[in-house]
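Posting here for the record, re: guanosine-5'-monophosphate.
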Amino acid sequence: MVDVLISNERLKERIRELGRELTEYYKDKTDTLHAVCVLKGSIHFFSELVQNIDMNVEYSFIQVSSYSGVSSTGRVRVKSWIDEPIEGRHVIVVEDILDTGLTLSYVIDYLKRYRPADLKIVTMLKKLGRTSLITPDFTGFEIEDKFVIGYGLDYNEKYRNLPYVGWVRGELK
Ligand code: 5GP
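Prediction output follows.
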């Protein structure tokens, strides 16, 4: 039984707002933003967000993982990486959820080596009460410390296509 934590309507409304915030923030700084989608979990958030940013947006996709089941393994594995130059660019890293920040701090450290003009982080969800290595610049929703699924987030590759963010009451299958 999956309980809805954030409905599709609330997600879309907040993402529209985030798009406006980002447009406002970047409009006097650059005419092209380079958005990095952290796969696979950010896929829906990324897709909705970039459509709500009113300027040119270039895309990169990277895939890293540190989770197995419901907990972080503490090791970050890179499966694919950016294939566009980001030196001197205004870069925004688009993440699904920030928990310990371990995955993202690794990604950020590496991206900084390419010398972007500016690098910001936007996350759809941030877990309250967790100590994170990373402070996001833009946050969609702060949620309690629960394992959530849906809108891109999986449990062993399942549930990603739920149109809302939810959590499973009882045992995850
Ligand atoms: P961190 O490195 O910040 O601890 O974890 C970040 C990554 O772990 C996220 O990008 C996501 O893939 C996964 N993750 C963290 N918390 C959750 C959660 O509650 N649900 C799901 N499905 N994945 C999570």
